[in-house]
Amino acid sequence: MTESRFAVTHVRMTTDRPFADVQAAFEQRLGRFEPDVYQPLAEGGDPAAVRARIEAMAGSSGFMLFSTRDPGGILRIVGQQRKAVQYVIGNPLFAVEMTRHAIGAALYVPLRVLIYEADDGKTCIEYDRASSLFGQFGDERVGRSRLPGGRRSPGPSGVVTLGSVGSFFNQEICDVRVPFHDEVVS
Length: 186
Hints:
The protein has a single domain (10-184), classed as TT1751-like domain (TATA-Binding Protein, 2-Layer Sandwich), CATH 3.30.310. The protein is built from 7 helices and 8 strands. The chain has helices spanning 19-28, 39-42, 47-57, 92-99, 130-134, 140-143, 181-184, and strands at 10-15, 31-32, 64-69, 84-90, 111-117, 123-128, 144-145, 160-161.
């Protein structure tokens, strides 16, 4: 058995925009993941057809929603309630470009983003910067990739660096640059 330690950069952003507005703007840029997309691969199907189907699932951000969870709802057990949604987001095509170099990267993809309303009424967005998670593998190919086939991402630079969750907020939400910050966080 081996153990290692590495530093994780945690990001917390706040905005005066209402929770529902931030949530809607975030979700609008996500596609929807369809879990049955892998079935043809298991049956010996055409990888190019599966890739095309996955590409079609991505939203304008390049990412898709895998699932959501309501961590605020369970607080009712202790007499509290919070507006909060945890998002599991990613893109299997980004993930395969990383895991082919270090399979352990699969522990950290898809990524997680938490959007919630704080006690002061502000909306908060939290995530662990993926670049700090992937840095432990010591291979820059794990944290930086182009879409399969060399195709560029939707961002202006065209480079997908799955380094953090800031891209949706024009910071580096996986370092895919998309115009989102002014619309959601300002």
